[in-house]
Amino acid sequence: MPTETFEFQVEARQLLQLMIHSVYSNKDVFLRELVSNASDALDKLRLAALRDDSLDADVSDLHIELEIDGDARTLTVRDNGIGMSYDEVGQLIGTIANSGTAEFLRELREAQDAAGTEGLIGQFGVGFYSAFMVADEVTVLTRRAGEEQGTRWSSRGEGTYTLERVDGAPQGTSVTLHLKPADPDNQLHDYTSVWKIKEIVKRYSDFITWPVRLVGERGEDGGAAEPETLNSMKALWARSPEEVSEDEYHELYKHISHDWRDPLQTIRMRAEGTFEYQALLFLPAHAPHDLFTRDFKRGVQLYVKRVFIMDDCEALLPPYLRFVKGVVDAQDLSLNVSREILQQDRHIRMMQRRLTKKVLSSVKSMMTEAPERYATFWREFGTVLKEGLVTDSDNRDAVLAVASFATTHGDGESVTLKQYVERMRDGQDAVYYLTGESRESIDSSPHMEAFRERGIEVLLLTDPVDEVWVDAVGEYEGKPLRSIAKGEIDLGAQGDEKAGEDREKQAEEYAGLLGWMREQLDEDVKEVRLSTRLTVSPACLVADAHDLTPALESMYRAMGQEVPRTRRILELNADHALVKALNQAYREREDRSELTGTAELLHALAVVAEGGRPKDPARFVQLLADRLERTL
């Protein structure tokens, strides 16, 4: 059969070069990745055989083999699992079908030193490609179960690979590494050493449910020795917690997630009674690059009586916990259960409820027992967890209890709503917040002025989901959640009778100007009124209490939903020199046509102050230049 040569996809080529010239110190993990891939292939074959009686595949002795040839300096990882077809080899090895890869490589190029580079490698499970950390050339021989013809893939990692159809290939996949020359000064990384291979398997892959056998050794008589099984094959979730070390839990997590970092938290759960199951869940230490993409694979591994059923069982946890990794082993489900059946199964729904509560309670415990780890968790996953405030009304209180938010008080530490309410000022009847694109834009917002002057704490909400959940939640412990950019907020009149009288006089004095400006700006605003929230800026825009915010309008339109344009309210600061001068000019002049431009300019300034863009930027610039010219 002819051998064809292909070029790697750009991202795959870059990743290969990264592996070949890797500064990553722990190169031993390449074997963990290859054994993990082999284990997945065996899982898939057993599942396929359970669901398809006609599949022509041998499942009598599923296993993984490791073979060392010291003379040729090769190490082969072989399985008799599902295998790959000719097309699958090109798709799975020649390209990287992962939307986070490009982002990963961009960050890698921006890393300033070797330590930063190593940290980034640890954020991205590179699987098969890690073989090039220790090998000059890699050859793959594979045949998909049920097919007659096999495929040979080979590459030196230099930008191209070859594909060849072959006859007589055994079922499954063998990966042969042509190892780099031995380093006489570093025997600890001699991967032709039997003790080294045994040590790696024991450390990283002891829990693999399939036997990992070392073959090819010579016996005392010079003949071939019996294959030696290197792993215990004990499921960690079925063992007593006292029997399992933290390192073993961490290796299981890495096997499941293909993450090279330790998890942030390990969660064990055992349910007994009418429906029995065991769960071993993990909270990662960092968010994957593709967490918010449509193609992100979520869910935990599902086993039934230790038999692997599916890899990404979405039905076991809600979407807002999609970052959770782990294993659930049920005793009373059918081995032939499908994803469609799982969606309707009452046992699965019950498991989802209990697993969700367990994860949230573990996060709550972390808040008090390990605040630094909680801070890491919330920084990485707070945005996605807050989706539960909108989508999961049953657990809304539990999600709210583990949520924390930036605030105008303190030294940058986040606070919970409970902490906020405990330190509310006397007479304060609401939890105040402001949404925006960033902390900086909120801090500089004119809506903050009166609150900052009076020392009233405001929550600073910068995630897109914040625009939605505050309306869904509505209140906390009887205190309404109130946006400081919506409705009328009267902070000065609380207990201050004179302030109320002064505002009544101002309202009379400015009544004509407000009505006139309302007519001039009719297309853009529905009301013009004096403000109680401004102390420095001349004007700001606010919405009625139940109106959509501009950010929420944009969000709906981005999702293809048509929403009517909302006209907002323009508030003026009666104590600002510009507003005072405009009111005086309005009262003194009969021809007010020249004042129209100033009214437009005030509105445009309010739009710019909240990070928006004037409706007509060219006219805004013209008006501003004209007014500046008059001052010279």
Notes on the structure:
- The chain is an alpha+beta fold and 632 residues long.
- It has 4 domains: 3-232, 2-Layer Sandwich (Heat Shock Protein 90), CATH 3.30.565.10; 237-380, Ribosomal Protein S5, domain 2; 404-483, 3-Layer(aba) Sandwich (Rossmann fold), CATH 3.40.50; 497-631, Heat shock protein 90, C-terminal domain (Four Helix Bundle (Hemerythrin (Met), subunit A)).
- It contains 21 helices and 22 strands.
- Helix 9 packs across helix 10 and helix 20 packs across helix 21.
- The radius of gyration is 32 Å and the shape is elongated.
- Return Rg in Å: 32 Å
CATH superfamily of the largest domain: Histidine kinase-like ATPase, C-terminal domain
Looking at the structure, the CATH topology of the largest domain is: Heat Shock Protein 90
Q: What is the correct CATH architecture of the largest domain?
A: 2-Layer Sandwich
Main β-sheet, spatial strand arrangement: 1-6-5-4-7-3-2-8-9
| Total count of strands | 22
Given the structure, what is the number of helices? 21
Overall helicity:
25-40%
**Are there runs of 5+ residues with pLDDT below 50, and where?**
112-125
Strand content: 15-25%
CATH class designation of the largest domain: Alpha Beta
Q: Mean of the pLDDT scores?
A: 85
User: Biggest sheet, in brief?
Assistant: 9 strands, mixed
Secondary structural class = alpha+beta
Total domain modules = 4
- The separation of the N and C termini measures 85 Å
**Shape descriptor:** elongated
